[in-house]
Design goal:
This protein is an alpha+beta fold. It has helices spanning about 105, 145-185, 195-210; strands spanning about 1-5, 10, 20-25, 35-40, 45-55, 60-70, 75-80, 85, 90-95, 100-105, 115-120, 125-130. It is elongated and about 130 Å long.
Length: about 210
């Protein structure tokens, strides 16, 4: 904390306990006094806004609770598809604006609805949007694989693709060889076998020998 000659009070590294009333008093040389009260408000920066969704007790509505990990003196605003949500027959805002009740009759016809919560104070603002389903689940609730599982599945998929590629090459080569053999057979038919002159002579000689005997 530092007090300058210009009657300015500077507070370094403000913490929550610095909040409160401060009185500035000035005495003049003619013994007159002037004072002023200052109400110092300390705001914590907002971070990690989230929406917790649950089924209503009547099982006909979804309860959306907007929360922040950090932040003080908050105000909340709800939007759906870019339009600000107010209290009506389908919506009810309570708990200082942090809770929103949504009738399922709004969600069912379209299959899902987008709801956005914005939390803000004098020094910061943060928001989050969810995809609300008719069963009060959200698009964020859908099953997602961890990074290591995605990597393993990717490697396995590449391996299977490589094996399929090898199999395709093998069958393709086999079919090409079969086609080439068939092609040679079509254009080069086997020639007929005719007896040679030596064979004919041998047959004739053999028959003559039989006659001599």
């Amino acid at each position: 904390m530092e007090l300058s000659t210009l009657f300015e009070l500077t507070i370094f590294s403000v913490v929550k306990s610095d909040e409160g009333l401060y009185r500035a008093v000035i005495w003049y040389i003619w013994d007159e006094m002037n004072s002023k009260l200052i109400d110092l408000a300390v705001f914590e920066t907002i971070s990690n806004v989230s929406i917790h969704v649950s089924m209503g007790a009547d099982e006909a509505s979804c309860q959306l609770q907007c929360k922040t990990a950090e932040g003080t003196k908050l105000t909340y605003k709800w939007q759906s598809h870019g339009v600000e949500v107010v209290n009506d027959k389908h919506h009810n805002i309570s708990d200082g604006g942090s809770r929103l009740s949504v009738a399922m009759s709004v969600v069912v016809p379209v299959g899902h609805s987008f709801y956005k919560c914005t939390a803000s104070n004098a020094v910061s603002s943060d928001s989050i949007e969810i995809d609300l389903n008719p069963d009060c689940s959200t698009g964020n609730d859908r099953f997602t694989l961890p990074i290591w599982a995605i990597v393993v599945l990717s490697i396995f998929s590449l391996f299977c693709s490589f094996v399929l590629f090898l199999c395709a090459c093998f069958f393709w080569c086999r079919d090409v060889r079969w086609f080439l053999r068939r092609r040679r057979a079509w254009f080069n038919p086997p020639q007929a076998q005719y007896p040679t002159s030596s064979t004919v002579g041998a047959t004739h000689t053999s028959s003559r020998r039989i006659e001599l005997d």
